[in-house]
Amino acid sequence: MPERSARSTGFGYFQCYRLTAWNTGFGPQPEGTRGIDQFIGESDMIARGHGSAFIRQFVDGQLRQGLPRIVTDPDPLNARAVRAYEKAGFVRDRMVETPDGTALLMVREP
Questions:
Q1: Which of 99, 96, 49 is nearest to 71 (CA)?
Q2: pTM of the model as a whole
Q3: Tens digits of residue pLDDT in 9-46
Q4: Own/partner long-range contacts of 92-96 (Cβ < 8 Å, ≥24 apart)
Q5: H/E element, 51
Q6: Residue from 79, 67, 47 nearest 108 by CA
Q7: Which domains does the chain have, with CATH numbers?
Q8: Inter-axis angle of helices 79-87 and 50-64, to 10 degrees?
């Protein structure tokens, strides 16, 4: 019988960052607020619920550690991303202008 081994591979990346001058379009935020971005790079992992689970797990942990708020700014035309963030507990706040163009500011609090 051939030997089988479990293989774990990455399917995307996560970025968590402090708000800076680049994010001034987000407006005033509570001290300690962090921004996030994520990307799923493996096409066979898209549309399977992994993005929202990936986001929720990370964000829940950060909020448990005391962060007051986490924000993200997907392209408002990227319905799949907006829905993934909503499934992860984010709410739509408002449209903002960023150096990359118009974005939808979404917020998650404890």
A1: 96
A2: 0.83
A3: 666 778 999 987 666 788 889 999 999 988 776 666 56
A4: 96/25, 96/26, 96/27
A5: helix 50-64
A6: 67
A7: 12-108 (3.40.630.30)
A8: 50
